[in-house]
Amino acid sequence: MHHIPLHSVIMMVLILGILIIATIITSLLKIKNRDKDYTELHQRVISWWWMIGLVFSFLILGKNTAIIFFAFLSFLALKEFISIVPIRQVDRNAIFWIYLSIPFQYYWVAAEWYGMFIIFIPVYLFLLVPVRMVLKGETQGFIRSAGILHWAAMLTVFSISHVAYLLVLPEKEMMAGGIGLVLFLLFMTQFNDVSQYVWGKCFGKHKIVPKVSPNKTWQGFIGGVVTITVLAGMIAPYLTPLNRLEGYIAGAIISVSGFWGDVVISSVKRDLHIKDIGNLIPGHGGILDRMDSLIYTAPLLFHYIYYLHY
Amino acid sequence: MLNRLLKLMFILLIVKPIVLIILGLNVRHRQKLPQNGPAIIAANHNSHLDTMVMFSLYPLSKVHKLRPVAAADYFLSNPLLAWFSLNVIGIIPISRTDPSKRETLFSACHQALDQGDILILFPEGTRGEPEQRSHLKKGIYHLTKDREDTAIVPLVTHGLGRALPRGEALLVPFICDIVVGDALPAVSNSDEMLEVLSSQYNQLLDECLTFNKQD
Q1: Per-residue confidence band for B99, with pLDDT thresholds at 50, 70 and 90
Q2: Which of A18, A224, B174, B189 sees the fewest Cβ atoms within 10 Å?
Q3: Longest dimension (CA), chain A
Q4: CB proximity under 8 Å: A 49-88 to B
Q5: Does ipTM top 0.95?
Q6: CB spacing of B172 vs A86 below 8 angstroms
Q7: Dihedrals φ, ψ of B147, to 5°?
Q8: A289 near B CB under 8 A
């Protein structure tokens, strides 16, 4: 155990409070409308307890355990992605190399070697994986596989590792620390998903991308962006080095890019004619179904903060 | 007793970690798995991992009931593998090369079914090319034609032929689909059984998340 900064403790307590309220509301709904089926809603809430419980536990246990936890999330996400996309049997060895990149990438994080962290996958892995494929000698379908494999590494390893790097940035906001940054990113990203959904459910009318995701509407999107922008401006000064105005912009970045991540992963699922990528998390689908927005918000928020304060 | 303990340790310490963490499963219709013998799970065959995955679908209290029916010429080919296959995995060896004595061929299988075991059978007979379905063999019909007590449950796996195909030593993590079907109806001849089984396999394969129709 190590010292958890005060503001981060308060944020964790607030999140657990929201979860308790959500649990009470779903229980009341179930009691009130006995004839309706709330199985999925119920599963969702239980899964939220698990996910938040696990993330908080590993954050509390210390920096390195949290980094290993995010590395494991990358592993699960990569495995999900690589298992559903069309790959060739001869790509097995190249895929093994991408799995091997996970311990390296997270080691650079733990070692706080920023230069290597930021180029390892976009430069070295990008160049080496096709070489491994060439050694196998099968040229039929080479281009498609090279593209798919690099995209997989970027989405599931490179992007997600930015969450872990937030933990090792030098502490600028002493009352919140690195944990504060992670809590800010994760809470804003997930709450953005929820609020875009709720705004869309209540006022949704005009579809944004009907072919990809018929439930996504301009009303939901704008409602979410406004909500998250205001909320981020209020919370950011307590959890991050950002001031209020910078916090508003951070909220807008998270909200807009979270939407992008969501519809990009949705397009992957549409292309493959599947509804969910896995069934690891009851009520939510796979890890990637839950982390789709985070793939976009993590690097974009990271570089926004990095540019302004580091 | 020692063998049963060895099997438990093997499944708890090696099979379950590999199958549940390194691979990961999408299981559909788990409730259709036969809980008590005599029963036969008729699965498609892509990898040595097929059997391991099926072990991990059952609670530890029941794994000793699961008996893979496996080729004697392969699994009894060297003393170490033979000892491991017979005592730890608990296979029922069957001769692929000498089909003349049909009565004695299945005697060990009948014995196991009589004591309420659940047989794991691969009607394709071999792992074959990765993720390619091979022709079904008629042995399963001859084994079960006089056994009305035995339910035959079809089961399809997809993805294991990518994780560990035949002839490869490198295990690469892939999520695997497991889809369990309804027990087969009674049939009158071997061709009919293979037809029913084959069409079941096609339907179950469609439910796999990792199966792309363009593949």
Answers
A1: low
A2: B189
A3: 64
A4: 75-76, 79-80, 82-84, 86-87
A5: no
A6: no
A7: -115, 95
A8: no
Cβ-defined contact of B24 to A278 (cutoff 8 Å): yes
Q: How far apart are CA A18 and CA A48, in angstroms?
A: 11
Please tell me if residue A100 touches chain B, with a CB cutoff of 8 Å. Answer: no
CB contact under 8 A, B26 and A89: no
Average pLDDT across chain B, whole number? 84
Given a contact cutoff of 8 angstroms between Cβ atoms, the answer to whether A195 and A224 are in contact is yes
Residues pairing with B121 in the sheet = B42
Distances (CA, A) of A148 to A22, A57, A82, A154: 39, 34, 9, 10
Q: Is B162 in Cβ contact with A92 (below 8 Å)? A: yes
User: What residues have CB less than 8 Å from A110, skipping those under 6 apart?
Assistant: A63, A64, A67, A168
Q: How far is CA A243 from CA A12, A189, A234, A249, in A?
A: 21, 19, 9, 10
A96–chain B Cβ distance below 8 A for any pair? yes
Report which of B99, B123, B107, B116 is spatially closest to residue B50, judged by C-alpha positions. Answer: B123
Answer whether A278 sits within 8 Å of B209, measured CB to CB.
yes
The residues near B58 (Cβ < 8 Å, ≥ 6 apart) are B33, B65, B66
| Nearest-angstrom CA–CA distance, A131 and A120 | 16
Per-residue pLDDT of A120-139, as tens digits, reads 999 999 999 999 999 998 99
| Beta bridge partner(s), residue B158 | B177
Chain B residue numbers with beta carbons less than 8 Å from the beta carbon of A279 are: 26
The Cα–Cα gap between A70 and A93 comes to 24
Q: What is the DSSP string of A185-209?
A: HHHHHHHHHHHHHHHHHHH--SBS-
Neighbours of B179 (CB within 10 A): 25
A166 touches chain B (CB under 8 A): no
Q: Which of B22, B23, B174, B211 to mutate to test the interface with A (most CBs of A within 10 A)?
A: B174
